[in-house]
């Protein structure tokens, strides 16, 4: 059985069994899991990333539309001075200087080859993909926290040593 995360639902794929009772159970589980994940990780969902694009510099019919940017993992991060700045919800890569014919997926991969979300090249995640990405994201957050605390500790130690010398 494969579980896919796609816009607004989880899809259980099981080619061997396709009876009505299982479909009803699957739909109920889909909705409950979807609602839970939407609360925990709203930016993992394309529709929520798209909501960050209150205004975008290119029309919806262009390759570099807000829809395509949200699909490629970006949230709007622009200002009046930089109206085309976006940021990946996963790798935190910030990009600007977009042109209307740019492909968001290609630009994402080009500028952030380390981003495992961009490497997937789909916003329809399998649950396994979601779990792996979530785990990677949590490890990244933990490592950043530890590094920040290490820097704070080193700075505090320097201050103490400076005070002891004076």
From TrEMBL:
Entry keyword set: Metal-binding, Zinc
Record keyword Cytoplasm present: no
UniProt entry tagged with the keyword Zinc: yes
Xref: SMART domains: BIR
GO MF term (any one): metal ion binding
The name this protein goes by in its record: Uncharacterized protein
Organism for this UniProt entry: Brassicogethes aeneus (Rape pollen beetle)
